[in-house]
Amino acid sequence: MSESSRVQTLAMLFFVVAVQILALAVTPAISASGSRVFDDPSSPSNPFSYMLLILAFTAVLLLAIKRNKGWIISVFIQISIATSIYYLAAAFMPPVYALLPTAAALLLIRYYPEWYVIDLLGIAVCAGISSLFGISMTTLPALILLVILAVYDAISVYKTHHMVSLAEGVIKMKAPLLFVVPRSRGYSFRKDQSLFAGADNRGEGGPVDKRGAYFLGLGDAIIPTILVISANTSLPAGGFFGVNLPALGAMIGTCFGFLLLMSTSRDRPQAGLPFLNTGVILGFLAGCAAAGVSPV
User: 182 - beta bridge partners?
Assistant: First the structure.
């Protein structure tokens, strides 16, 4: 791996770690607000409900890309971002005031979608979503969800290839559903015409070598973080700075899984979640063993 590639890898790892740290920081406020996705956090049906949402969302985006209906994708993305930012802001301020940062985020994405704007909003969006789903599921449903999504990601990248098509469409449309890491100084995501050229990419879990930047799908930061939050809120407290050992182990495992993903071949698209979810689950289990607590 070249020096430049190592820098880009560390930058993408920074985004994942930043999401997890911010999610842990905002979880007490979001939890206190009473916001939940599922009424019963311990229900084994929760991960399957989550999967239905993902499948429906993916189907709509793929259909819109195939029929060149960019406005449909734009509406879905703006609703998703607005909802995430609103819930995050509403945990710290009155609901009416939370509309202000929500509106500001939408205006930035609409009129100035530069890479650093997308990255900063991406961290906030990922942290908010991860926290919301993390407190809505205890560890058993969260573990089931991560296993299902790892299998789904592998199938969708290596067999059906529809996740590769989705990633390509999202990148070409410059949709803010990913982290952007420039490969050179002076890079502008808004002006990058190489996004429309053919490229050898690694799917939603890795970089694109023939373009002006590397890309990392937001899902690769959100999904492992759900288990981190679930572990920290569902299992006995302790550890360091309010983070218990199972959650800390999950965070460390995520980093190892990510670095293993980045070491794989770039000759074809790679599914990110099999690496990341395996890492976060093994780290979580190691943390549970170290803390002497049951993982479920």
Answer: 213
What's the mean pLDDT in 264-279? Answer: 81
Q: Provide the mean pLDDT of the chain.
A: 85
- What are the residues whose beta carbons fall under 8 Å from the beta carbon of 78, sequence distance 6 or more? 106, 109, 110
- Residue 91 contacts residue 29 (beta carbons within 8 Å): yes
pLDDT tens per residue across span 160-197 = 888 877 877 777 777 778 899 888 888 888 877 666 55
What amino acid occupies position 284? F
The residue count for the chain: 296
Contacts of 150 by beta carbon, 8 Å cutoff, 6+ apart? 271, 273, 274, 277, 278
Quote the pLDDT of residue 195. Answer: 61
**Angstrom distance (rounded) from CA 260 to CA 278:** 11
Neighbouring residues of 279: CB distance < 8 A, sequence distance ≥ 6? 224, 253, 254, 255, 256, 257, 258, 260
Model pTM score: 0.88
Which CB contacts under 8 angstroms, 24+ apart, belong to 257-263?
257/224, 258/12, 258/13, 258/16, 258/220, 259/9, 259/13, 261/205, 261/206, 262/1, 262/9, 262/12, 262/13, 262/206, 263/1
